[in-house]
Design a protein that fits this description.
The structure holds two protein chains of two kinds. By secondary structure, chain A is α+β, with helices and mostly antiparallel strands. Chain A has helices spanning 3-13, 19-32, 73-83, 88-100, 112-120; strands spanning 50-57, 65-72, 126-130, 134-140. Chain B is α+β, with helices and mostly antiparallel strands. Helix content of chain B is 43%, strand content 31%. The chains are: A alpha+beta, B alpha+beta.
């Protein structure tokens, strides 16, 4: 089941749309993405360009709070490259403070290439946290 | 591409929006003397902390280049702030 179909079904389950609307949306989705014949190669999915963080607080209340952040993935990559310039003596001091705080992470072992690989694999990341008062979504688009 | 326009929108308690459009290039040109001083201070800091100045300049440039498309939006009750970089 693809992601869009799953989202439609989720909206239906949450009562945000009716069954007729869900059926229309799924039909439109199928028209947009016809099933490829067996053996044919699927069209490659366009790579996401942005990381979105969406926090909705008190969604049905009088004064809902919203945090909506869209960050280009290239900005994350540039930040990682910039962070790789941190001198080793600063990293060792950070490591000392982290271990004092009970977080024994060795930042010198974290290479920029590892983080770049991590960012490259963010494409399929979806984090959904549904609480009674707060809803958090992290995804790439 | 470097950012062209930074838009800041602020909604006050009375519901009115305050919009601020900042054209990046003219502002950078106006502030270029200060910017030059900041770059010099940054270079000195690079030498003091033994960081490659070329790498730092390249990293800062990449960060600047990657900024377009950034959007930050915070709503809290009647107050709201929106920042977008184009």
């Amino acid at each position: 089941m693809n992601e869009q179909r799953r989202q439609i079904l989720q909206m239906l389950a949450e009562g945000k749309i009716t069954a007729d609307e869900a059926e229309r949306l799924i039909d439109a989705l199928e028209r947009e993405q016809p099933e490829s014949p067996s053996g044919a190669t699927a069209r490659p999915k366009p790579r996401p360009k942005y990381l979105r963080v969406l926090v909705v607080e008190n969604p049905g209340g009088d004064e809902p709070g919203l945090v909506n952040v869209r960050v280009p993935l290239n900005l994350l990559r540039a930040g990682v490259r910039l962070a790789s310039l941190i001198p080793p003596q600063a990293l060792s001091r950070v490591n000392d403070e982290l271990s004092k705080s009970g977080v024994p992470i060795d930042l010198t072992e974290l290479k920029p290439q590892h983080i770049e690989d991590l960012i490259d694999q963010l494409d399929d990341l979806t984090v959904d946290v549904d609480d009674r008062d707060t809803k958090v979504q992290v995804f790439c688009e | 591409m470097i950012p062209n326009l930074v838009t800041v929108r602020y909604r006050r308690h009375d519901g009115r929006w305050l919009r601020l459009y900042v054209p990046v290039l003219p502002v950078v040109l106006v502030l270029s003397p200060l910017l030059l001083l900041a770059v010099l201070a940054g270079l000195v800091a690079c030498f003091v902390f033994r960081v490659s100045p070329v790498g730092a300049l390249r990293g800062a440039g990449q960060l600047l280049w990657a900024l377009p498309g950034t959007r930050i939006e915070i709503h809290d009750g009647q107050t709201a702030v929106r920042l977008s970089v184009r």
